């Protein structure tokens, strides 16, 4: 079964980005490498952190803001739980959320899941593309959302309609240029229908 071995964020300043992700508590979960590839507006993806309770949402979002992130959506309670969205100094959008509405104790700082959401122009077409490359579907909601089964991967992979994803994280849909995101896996190098690049996991760089 195809899996994600690494997620590499391409950033203009690796040292500054490393400081931010260390403060955010993600220095071992994401890789970084330098890139000056031009990009404007929405990059077409977001990263989501799932935690167990609202206190952890508040703690992680607070740590991100203290480290220089820009708030996109404040931490709020909704019918599905509690969540907030920030944009890292390198431009990556991070959503922190929990399905719980009440705390069961103090914040632990523990992240239950990391999910990479790729904004797809055609979710059904992108689903077929990934299935043909060995990924199994774990959840599917028609042409709106697909989550793949990657049990051995440190990061889960999901597809969401690009417009819906932009709305969910609170940014305009417009954007051009590089995604500044590279996925490492065991299916070999390829580029998906929306321009997201994969490379062989053995070629993935190490974090600076």
Automatic annotation (TrEMBL):
GO MF term set: lyase activity
InterPro entries according to UniProt: Glyas_Bleomycin-R_OHBP_Dase (IPR029068)
Listed Gene3D superfamilies: 2,3-Dihydroxybiphenyl 1,2-Dioxygenase, domain 1 (3.10.180.10)
Keyword Lyase: yes
Keywords, ordered alphabetically: Lyase
Superkingdom as given in the UniProt entry: Bacteria
Protein name: Predicted lactoylglutathione lyase
Organism per entry: Nonomuraea solani
Lineage: Bacteria, Bacillati, Actinomycetota, Actinomycetes, Streptosporangiales
